Amino acid sequence: MKALVLDRPGKPDVLYLTEVDKPTPGPREVRVRVQAVGLNPVDYKLAATGYPGWKFPFILGLDIAGVIDAVGPEVDDWSEGDPVYYLGDMKRPGGYGQYTIAHTDALAWMPENMNPVEAAALPCAGFTAYQALYRKLRVQKDRTILIHSGSGGVGSYAIQLAKAAGLTVIASCSAHNFEFVKRLGAEHTIDYKNSDVASVAKTFTEGDRGVDYVLDSVSSESARKCMDALAFGGEIACVAGMPDLSDVPQFTKAFSVHEIALGAAYASGDAVAIADLGRMGRELAALVAKAKIRPTVQEVIALEEIPEALVRLSNRHVRGKIVARVP
pLDDT tens digits for 102-145? Predict the structure, then answer.
């Protein structure tokens, strides 16, 4: 089969297209004929460092949509021909190739109203936003959330999910993305390049009390700064690193901090956490089916164009999601 492979850690442009053996599914596994694969920041980060246990050449790609091509032993809930989408395991070869292996517990049925490109735009960013808002923050209607980097992959889904939950949304992004995040549902926008995001966010709340929730997908330093926007008893979900709390006085804000580590479900080996990936896939797909959210596909590319697209993604100026069709 054709696949885009990495034969050593390095920058994304070291990926190259070649022929590799088609994988064989084991117990409780299926082989998926990949139709589309989404690109994520974790792809170029893993390319740079590698991951314990990898055998080179390695195939990246976590956001996978396709059709089950073969089933392994002990599989009775899925069949050949079933259309699926899911978040892959970063320890194992992924979707930058024509075929890959999936654990059945993590699978979700691809809804009839979504094509493979749209489905492949959902898992990593969509599940991360979903986990942050509904599993960790457990957001409540009529409250306020600051979504930092609102035009990015995670942020663009988080805005839609927050609106579906009845929240008032404040989104930070570059000024040229203001209209984009407003179309997604943000009531207020902040230019992070020219403003103190936390200070401005508070001005959008009653009496400048601060926001009830923060979702930060930028960095540990960013998460710490955004905490200053929290109201008393507020909560922050951190996607790209936990904040340094050493300078935060105790017993002043009674805040809560949540770590989001979506892919760590596989690394943990926790069966409940892995199964929840499939459950989130089904729940998110139901929201898509009801038109509560829509996939944020901004660009569709070919498999061989992935290395160049990952370089652009690493510069952090990509709006929404890039998805590659797999021939």
Answer: 999 999 999 888 999 999 999 999 999 999 999 999 999 999 99
Cα–Cα distance between 50 and 66 in angstroms, integer? 26
Between strands 211-216 and 144-148, the pairing is: parallel
Segments making up each domain of the chain, as ranges: 2-122+267-325, 128-259
The C-alpha atoms of residue 245 and residue 40 are separated, in whole angstroms, by 28
Q: Report the top-level CATH class of 2-122+267-325.
A: alpha beta
Per-position DSSP letters for 142-191, written without gaps between them: T-EEEEETTTSHHHHHHHHHHHHTT-EEEEEE-GGGHHHHHHHT-SEEEE
Dihedral of CA atoms 68, 305, 151, 89 in degrees, nearest 10, equals 40
Segment 167-221, tens digit of pLDDT: 999 999 999 999 999 999 999 999 999 999 999 999 999 999 999 999 999 999 9
Angstrom distance (rounded) from CA 51 to CA 296: 29
Token pair, residue 210, equals 């601060």
Region of 149 (left: φ > 0; alpha: ψ -120 to 50; beta: rest) is: left
Q: Note the pTM of the prediction, 2 decimals.
A: 0.95
CATH of the domain spanning 128-259, picked from 3.40.50.720, 3.40.50.10490, 3.40.50.10800, 2.40.170.20: 3.40.50.720
Strands 321-325 and 297-302 come out as parallel
188, β-bridge pairs: 170
CB 259 within 8 A of CB 279: no
